[in-house]
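Reopening this one. Same input as before:
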Amino acid sequence: MAQKILTLIRHKHYLLFKILVFALAWFLVLYFIPGEGKFRYEIQKGKPWQQESLFAPFDFAIQKPIDQLIDEQGMALEFVYPYFVLNEDETVRGRESMQLSFEKLWSEKHKDKSNLKKASLRLINILFDSIHATGIISIHKSIEGLDQASNINIVVKREVRALPINRLFTVQTAYEYVSDRVSEVSGIDRDLVLRVLGEHLIPNLEYNELMTEQDKRKAVEAVSTTYGMVQQGELIIAGGEVIDSNKFNILQSLKKEYEQRLGNQKGSYTLLGGHAILIGVIFSILFLFIRFIRPDVFDELKKLNLILLLMLMVILPSFLLITKTPALLYFIPFGILPIIMITFFDTRLTLMVHLLTVLMIALIVPNSFEFIFFQFVVGFVVIFSLVNHNKRIYFFRTSAYIFLAYVVIYAGFTLIQEGSLLYMTRNQVWAFLFSALLTLLAVPLIFLLERLFGLITDLTLLELSNTNSPLLRELASKAPGTFQHSMQVANLSEEALYAIEGDTLLARTGALYHDIGKMDNPLYFIENQSGGYNPHNDIGYAESAAVIIGHVIKGIEKARKGRLPEQVIDFIRTHHGTRRVEYFYIMEQRQNPGVSLDERDFCYRGPIPFSKETAVVMMADSVEAASRSLKMPTEQKINDLVENVIGKQLESNQFDNANITVREINIVKKILKKKLMNIYHIRIAYPE
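Same output, byte for byte:
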């Protein structure tokens, strides 16, 4: 039995790995899902209650609507006075500094006049003490905009008293008060008294944030969050009754209380078990969909890992935010998932993954119908705006469309539930805008995921297929004949793959780079020779074969140095497969009759093509190169050439690993014949 299990694991280990990653994703979602129950009824304001009459299953308090609660808390805060503490130490230091300043200024201005000095100093002390005992308030944002008759709390020696702002001094009003008093007194040096006091009238009432915030917190906490009770057995809503604002609020209160009570019972594992079943069903649907509908994706573990990672990147933050601050749910950029998915995969898989992700989040969000409706539309908006559009600028357009879709749907729900667009809140619109803008993070994420998972997107292929890219510019400069050959191969491959529904953009890009290894020794390749000189005449046939074969290895090295994706490098590796360099092999045999040659010295190292795209590029490359040797090409000559070249490739088993059928190969041959006849301007022979 154990041996059978080990054998099964050995033969099915790749499938087991795939099951394991799905199980890991299931476990993570289950671990982070909030431990709250789900209310069994869907509540929509403005619509009839479509269930039977609902009676209260237990006593519960009616929660105030959030807008009402915020308004009441705001009104409570209006009666919280800011706290200012009298700094007695600052007053004492200021008085001592003032007296020293007076003595210094008096000695500089007067030599005697002791009576005048005493009177002046006495008045300075009286005015200073009087003003600072009342208090000079410092300007602070907490009192900006307040009416002068508004109260503030003054703390003196731990005693608090409320005084209107206009009963206190500022530096300016204190100086004006001093000026008035000094002008009424004789027998003093008025100028010196004003100067000394003016320099030492400093604020000694300082704002105390801690005491103010404590009072604010108490005021907010004192506001009741409820406004009534519903008794067990009391009718909440009758069947068919329209859910108005009051009924909606009562139902929401029941829902909140119900989910809290159910969440507190999670020790019984019933809630956990329910979530485990539903999440398991969703992941099973995804697993089976990819297995049977997209087997090409299922065959690659890295693609499955990418899909599950993208789902978790949206699901887990949503769970954490719903647990902490559910009001901020729509700040999450849910559109980022379909944007990234459609960049790597097709529309069917994108829509399936997006909808299953939304369903998982909807298990615990409030108003799940609205949430699903919003995200359902967003998924289609992304697909419609990005399918067949492969420029980064379209991501900005998609972000704008997402925001517009959110606002339109929000307006629709508001009309149904409230009966007027006036109930649309600015904060909710800002949340939609923020979410839409965050979807632009998809651009750097796509670049990061490409590198992390070794995948390639159409955006990257478009950039690489630009003939102004560094490697292609270098190829055009050093080996212009090879560059033109590569362009022709790219065009032929693109047309052929379009006919058999292959990846045209990948094949075109791979064809453009497949011969970059010829740049080091361009003259050894006939398409770059001119003037009749052939460097192969100066070396042996075996050495010539080594140079020809070596362009594949050199191409791979240049591609890696130029940071080309592995999917493009695959075309360099496979475009000659494991075929033999026939000309130099035959010439070497003729030159050395009777000598046993090592055939491996005259064969490319491979591998053979392993995809429909690499197989077509091999065909197009060989046919295009061979067609250049035709003298006075005709329809028959081109037909024979294509059949002969591709026939030899089939005989040498070059397409055994590629997922291309005989029917598709025949279609490719027809396309290549037609395109070559167009290139050489050959008229099709009409039947007699």
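So the earlier flakiness isn't reproducible anymore. For the record, The CA atoms of residues 358 and 375 lie 7 Å apart.
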